[in-house]
Specification:
This protein has helices spanning 21-27, 63-73, 133-146, 158-161, 164-168, 185-197, and strands at residues 4-5, 15-16, 19-20, 34-36, 44-50, 79-81, 87-89, 95-97, 118-124, 154-157. Helices cover 27% and strands 18% of the residues. Helix 3 crosses helix 6. The strands form three sheets. A six-stranded mixed sheet has the order 1-7-6-9-5-10. Strands 2-3 form a two-stranded antiparallel sheet. With 201 residues, the protein is of the alpha/beta class. The chain has one domain (33-197): Lysozyme-like (3-Layer(aba) Sandwich), CATH 3.40.80.
């Protein structure tokens, strides 16, 4: 599946509440919601979930509301996958997205600042929603494709790098819990493996 471009930058005229993505980013005196990687080699993919449930409880997967959240909090991810499996690219893979914050890889790796060497993928989901089969399939295909461009060695959840250990080390104030226990890692790996095996067909 080809990603739908929707970059979080000052060129994106997608309409959101009271303006456009571009206008709101410029209002924050920014050109885009990413920065240069400074030569880091990408070898990790970080999985997250997010929704607009706190501001739109009756419409938690509203795409434009989720874009607004990214801009409001000055955060970003490389990709966003909606409940139907539609894939949006928000940040170029060659740039450093702001999706991890204070973070540290699991032992024995223990590298800090995971944004530097990772690609971040957000799945539209809420704490108790679980994930759709369309999302799993889109995610698996995307990750198999990413592996053709980068030497990915590790897939981690946001909770694995920004959880209680990161808090204890003083890297952040609060622990992250996504994608959480409802994310089926084995199903994801099985689907990704099948996508990789079919890549040359």
């Amino acid at each position: 599946m080809k990603p739908i471009p929707c970059l979080l930058d000052a060129e994106n005229n997608t309409a959101i509440a009271d303006g456009t993505v571009a206008a709101k980013i410029v209002r924050q005196q920014k050109k885009h919601l990413w920065q240069e990687r400074a030569g880091s080699v990408v070898d990790t993919v970080v999985l997250h979930y997010m929704s607009a449930v706190n501001i739109l409880p009756k419409d938690p997967y509203n795409f434009k509301a989720i874009l607004e959240i990214f801009i409001q909090y000055g955060v970003s991810a490389h990709y966003l996958i909606d409940r139907a499996g539609a894939l949006y690219q928000l940040v170029p893979e060659g740039k450093k997205a702001w999706h991890c914050g204070g973070s540290i890889m699991p032992e024995p790796d223990s590298r800090k600042g995971v944004n530097d060497f990772s690609i971040g993928i957000e799945l539209m989901a809420a704490p108790d929603s679980g994930f759709t089969e369309d999302q799993y399939r889109s995610l698996a295909a995307l990750c198999a494709d990413i592996e053709t461009r980068h030497g990915i060695k590790k897939y981690v959840g946001h909770e694995d790098i920004a959880g209680k250990r990161a808090v204890a080390l003083g890297l952040r104030d609060a622990a992250k819990t996504d994608p959480g226990p409802l994310f089926d890692w084995q199903h994801f790996y099985d689907l990704k493996s099948n996508n990789g095996n079919n890549a040359g067909e």
